[in-house]
Amino acid sequence: GIRKGEANILVVGLDNSGKTTILNAFKSPENKSEEIVPTVGFNVEKFKMDKISFTAFDMSGQGRYRNLWEHYYKNIQGIIFVIDSSDSLRLVVAKEELDLMLKSEEIESKPNIPVLIFANKMDLVESMSSVKISQGLGLASMKNRPWHIQASNALTGEGLHEGIQWLSEQLL
Ligand code: GTP
Ligand code: MG
Q1: What is the ipTM of this complex?
Q2: What is the pLDDT of residue 171?
Q3: Which ligand is nearest to the Cα of residue 22, counting in written order?
Q4: Which residue among 12, 16, 158 is best mutated to probe the pocket of ligand 1, counting the most ligand atoms within 8 A of its Cβ?
Q5: Is 132 exposed, middle or buried (0-12, 13-18, 19+ CB in 10 A)?
Q6: What is the pTM of this model?
Q7: Backbone angles phi, psi at 166, to 5 degrees
Q8: What is the residue-wise DSSP string for 37-95?
């Protein structure tokens, strides 16, 4: 479990998947951004939910910044991996990045770190189901650590709390 109800989480996934929009939805009204722009490098966001004070490292998903992710593997208790469910062309790229992270020494040596996958943008007609995404990512072969896939719509907030609830249960 975590100490003092505080958890550091890493939020990763390809560019344009909705990471910053998801985190913005968790913030209190006075802290919410009105306009969300592509993340440059990374941002640190704080929010409280389900008795946990989260510090989230909101990483840029752009190719040229993805090498920054690994610098944050050390001090995290949980991972949120965000997928754009409508981006079927790049699901294989998302899988490559997920696999690369999971087989890094820092992460592989800590099987207690849970991975929450948001199958985001579920509202778009062309979006793949979470079952299809789960198959595409080969999640069934991730047998050594807790994982969960949750369909979400970061614009309306649908699915977001359910996902965080699962993550909180793993952390407490
Ligand atoms: P990087 O910072 O570049 O890695 O991207 P990101 O993953 O943080 O994505 P961001 O939150 O900036 O969202 C990218 C675009 O997707 C924005 O135009 C969002 O409004 C849109 N978006 C995010 N979530 C959803 C969703 O659930 N449904 C739809 N339709 N659009 C979404
Ligand atoms: Mg972002």
Answers
A1: 0.99
A2: 95
A3: 1
A4: 16
A5: middle
A6: 0.97
A7: -60, -45
A8: -PPSSEEEEEEEETTEEEEEEEE--SGGGGGGGGGGSTT-SEEEEEEETT-GGGHHHHH
